[in-house]
């Protein structure tokens, strides 16, 4: 009886973006329409044509002679953009393709199949939803998602969706591969700051990984809505896989720049924890997601963070008289508490930490 009651309660306010697309709505419902000043400009901006976005061959890190050059490239990318694309990253294309197949099958399930995973609780280890928080968002965002804790895999995988039957195996292999990749990337970024590459080694091994698998369905009026609002990620790094173009970053002139889609590449985005750890030398990347009226887009954001309760603060080696500590400390748990009760479109979490 209690489960039935909960289901009706959810039905009252939960309609996924995918369900709207499948119903054939000719226009975006009012609750998805952004104020005019926040709507995306879908024609290419001038900045897109003039800016050169970094692509780094990660395999060269393994060559002792070339590693210093790659570390320097990463330093320039982190200072200039807060992100870089990586090729030859070591995640097999078969693992990527299998994960995309599993995600596609999951989102193609009937609404009833997915409803038992719906939750508004940001602390839940597995959560299906739409928008950011469908119970509190003033404006909805045109996406559906399934999020699940992913490291250590053995601790969480039993809680993942059992339907489609291939989901756990295929998504599990991708999660493990991105965890290894995260370790390589964080070592290189630590080196680029002049720290030991093992600076965060223990925190990485004990840290958390949240896999956010996003579906951005076809949208009848993409100029009126967004898939995700402007935000930065809370963690150390996000490793992003996208099935097509849709990611935009804010450049140093506060202009939105479309991040090119490179088949087979992954994107490494700096999160708030790296901004704090670097004492502001590197900044977390502000980004948003546009939607499309012609095709559905999938993205996998592998969000890596220090352990739930572990506080991060500026690295002592990067604090001195000329550059005093510019941030207070925080943990992943602090971020979850903030996002549970605040509108991230009105205030970034990291701004609450600045001294």
Q: How are the secondary structure elements laid out?
A:
Blueprint: H1 2-13, H2 17-23, H3 46-50, E1 55-57, H4 67-80, E2 83-87, H5 93-107, H6 111-115, E3 126-130, E4 144-149, H7 153-156, H8 167-192, H9 201-206, E5 208-216, E6 228-231, E7 237-242, E8 247-250, E9 256-258, E10 266-270, H10 272-277, E11 287-289, E12 297-305, H11 332-341
Parallel strand pairs: 1-2
Antiparallel strand pairs: 2-10, 3-4, 4-5, 5-12, 6-11, 7-10, 7-12, 8-9, 8-11
Name its key features.
355 residues; alpha+beta; Jelly Rolls; 8-stranded mixed sheet; 4-stranded antiparallel sheet; 11 helices; 12 strands; 31% helix; globular; disordered N terminus; IPNS-like_FE2OG_OXY
Question: By helix and strand content, what is the structural category?
Answer: alpha+beta
- CATH architecture verdict: Sandwich
Low-confidence stretches: 1-12, 45-50
Helicity level: 25-40%
Largest sheet: 8 strands, mixed
Number of strands: 12
Strand order, sheet with most strands: 1-2-10-7-12-5-4-3
Q: CATH H-level name... which superfamily?
A: B-lactam Antibiotic, Isopenicillin N Synthase, Chain
β-sheet strand percentage:
15-25%
Oligomer: single chain
What pattern of helices and strands is seen along the backbone? HHHEHEHHEEHHHEEEEEEHEEH
CATH class: Mainly Beta
């Amino acid at each position: 009886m209690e489960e039935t009651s909960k289901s009706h309660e959810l039905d009252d306010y939960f309609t996924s973006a995918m369900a709207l697309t499948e119903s054939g709505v000719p226009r975006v419902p009012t609750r998805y329409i952004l104020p005019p000043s926040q709507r995306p400009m879908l024609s290419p901006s001038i900045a897109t044509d003039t800016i050169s976005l970094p692509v780094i061959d990660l395999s060269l890190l393994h060559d002792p002679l070339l590693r210093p050059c790659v570390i320097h490239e990463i330093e320039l990318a982190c200072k200039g953009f807060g992100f870089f694309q990586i090729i030859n990253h070591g995640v097999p294309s078969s693992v990527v393709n299998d994960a995309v197949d599993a995600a596609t099958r999951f989102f193609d399930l009937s609404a009833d199949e997915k409803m038992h995973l719906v939750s508004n609780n940001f602390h839940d280890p597995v959560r299906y939803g739409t928008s950011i928080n469908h119970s509190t968002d003033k404006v909805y965002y045109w996406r559906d998602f399934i999020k699940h804790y992913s490291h250590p895999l053995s601790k969480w995988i039993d809680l993942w969706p059992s339907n489609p039957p291939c989901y756990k195996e295929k998504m599990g292999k991708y999660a493990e591969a991105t965890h290894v990749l995260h370790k390589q990337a964080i070592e290189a970024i630590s080196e680029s700051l002049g720290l030991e590459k093992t600076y965060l080694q223990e925190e990485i091994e004990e840290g958390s990984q949240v896999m956010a698998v996003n579906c951005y369905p076809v949208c009848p009026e993409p100029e009126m809505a967004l898939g995700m609002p402007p935000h930065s990620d809370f963690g150390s790094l996000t490793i992003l896989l996208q099935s097509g173009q849709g990611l935009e970053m804010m450049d140093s002139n506060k202009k939105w720049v479309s991040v090119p889609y490179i088949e087979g590449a992954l994107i490494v985005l700096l999160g708030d924890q790296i901004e704090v750890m670097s004492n502001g030398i590197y900044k977390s990347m502000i980004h948003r997601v546009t939607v499309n009226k012609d095709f559905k887009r999938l993205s996998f954001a592998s969000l890596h963070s220090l352990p739930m309760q572990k506080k991060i603060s500026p690295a002592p080696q990067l604090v001195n008289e000329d550059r005093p500590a510019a941030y207070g400390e925080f943990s992943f748990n602090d971020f979850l508490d903030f996002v549970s009760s605040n509108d991230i479109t009105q205030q970034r979490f990291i701004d609450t930490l600045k001294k």
